[in-house]
Design goal:
The chain has 2 domains: 109 residues, Immunoglobulin-like, CATH 2.60.40; 135 residues, no CATH class. It is 14% helix and 44% strand. The chain is built from 3 helices and 23 strands. Strands 1, 2, 3, 4, 5, 6, 7, 8 and 9 form a 9-stranded mixed β-sheet that branches. The chain has a 6-stranded antiparallel β-barrel with strand order 10-13-14-21-20-17. The protein is elongated, with a radius of gyration of 25 Å. It starts with a helix and ends in a 7-residue tail after the last strand.
Length: 284
């Protein structure tokens, strides 16, 4: 009886140790290196930090590799990669891109929880690349939005905006932009399309003010910006814009609005001045 108990105890201890090992392995994180797998991307690679596991998925309608990782996640591009991109989808893989993630010095830090698509390729002339998805867990759901200190000139005239800098780019209220360029050759109307459940923009049409435009707080403070999945139609066509919600208002990246409406945007580093020119066409 005593010998039997000793054996059972030993087996139980082995089972416990095995379970603990499996549990620890399941929680372990590591850096993964994704190698280019086709002729056009041979020698290229992307590293991903804090990866928990990788699985094959097909929620988008086609098979893809999904890397699940704990925030913050560092993505680094290596080899002879010419084109690189990271796009944030938010919490759903529904094909709606929330914003592009800035890649600086071949690296990007992913802090927001949600899904990201990573793409890379070589020479532009080849036109062939590959990619994969990352699901970031345990990250923030917001980003800090700092009041923009830059002066804004619209056709040479100073205009006061309550704008914010998020991730290195300037964001403005859509109606503030529409009001600022109203009665110019680049005016546009902003309405709500309840049938399409979308913000509707109509180019070359006078803007109808609602009386709340271009209001500025006495002392703007740093706010928390939440990615906004607002749908936007321009002249009936769907557009994907980078947008954030701050205190119930949607803020859009100035350059993205300028590009589709077609007005010029400049930045003078010496005077820290943003310029909006409705007589000029948009250029990168």
């Amino acid at each position: 009886m005593h010998e039997t108990c000793k054996r059972v105890g030993f087996i139980w201890m082995v089972v416990m140790l095995f379970s603990l090992t499996v549990s620890m392995s399941a929680l372990a994180v590591s850096e993964k290196r994704v190698e280019g797998s086709i002729e056009e991307t041979k020698g290229m690679y992307v590293t991903i930090s804090n990866v928990i596991k990788m699985k094959e998925a097909s929620e988008t309608g086609y098979p893809y590799d999904l890397y699940i990782a704990n925030a913050p996640v560092t993505v680094t591009f290596g080899g002879k990669i010419v084109n690189k991109s990271i796009q944030f989808y938010g919490n759903a893989m529904d094909g709606t891109i929330n914003h592009d993630v800035q890649v600086k010095d071949n690296s990007a830090l992913l802090k927001l929880s949600g899904y990201y698509e990573v793409g890379f390729s070589g020479d532009d002339s080849v036109g062939v690349g590959e990619g994969f998805f990352i699901q970031v867990q345990g990250g923030s759901t917001t980003l800090p939005a700092t009041p923009t200190a830059s002066k804004v000139l619209v056709n040479g005239k100073e205009v006061s905006f309550e704008a914010y800098n998020i991730n290195g780019s300037n964001y403005f209220k859509l109606r503030d932009i529409a009001m600022a360029v109203n009665e110019t050759e680049k005016n546009f109307e902003v309405t709500w399309d309840s049938a399409e459940n979308a913000i509707n923009l109509t180019s070359n049409k006078a803007y109808t003010p609602d009386g709340k435009e271009l209001t500025v707080s006495d002392k703007p403070t740093v706010k928390q910006a939440k990615p906004s999945g607002s749908r936007v139609l321009l002249d009936g066509l769907d557009y994907s814009f980078t947008a954030y919600n701050l205190d119930g208002s949607n803020y859009f990246k100035l350059r993205e609005i300028a590009e589709v409406i077609g007005f010029g945007v400049t930045f003078n580093v010496e005077t820290n001045t943003i310029g909006i020119d409705t007589k000029a066409e948009y250029t990168n």
